[in-house]
Amino acid sequence: GLVPPVFPNLNECVAYEHKDGSLVLNIRGSDKGRRAISISSDQGKTWSNPALDDALPCPSCQASVLRLSENELLFSNPATAFCGSIDTDSRKNMSLALSFDEGATWPVRRVLNPGQSGYSDLAVLKDGSICCVFECGEVFYNKKISFARFTRDWLIQEPDNRQAVGR
What Cα–Cα distance (Å) separates residue 117 from each residue in 58, 113, 126, 154, 157? Predict the structure, then answer.
């Protein structure tokens, strides 16, 4: 099925499954300043009207979602608006957000790279550590590719003790 064209220029989505079996598309909301969400309860045959998620600020850029456990979703993107304003053109502030309620809220947020940042992807290794590969650079967001490896404990601990490894 197709996501209803409520907003123009929605693209570059990432799909995941809710615990109840419904499918979720987390969609790049070009020029919207945040991600759009559409849900299907019939295995993707039909989709809800997309809704902008104010909890997921995003310039016009790809993002990644990963299910960490039955109760946790991890999201990565250059959350420019997390810096204080919605800037739909600038890609910076590569951030992680953690949800404990199927993406309804994202109470845990961490910054991997405060500078220029672009596309990202998430994975979990056999030892349980989490990896994020992402574009970044000093002047241009896509000058190089960086790799960060961290634990769930690092993700949820107090900010003054955080330090990702492997970058």
Answer: 11, 7, 27, 21, 23
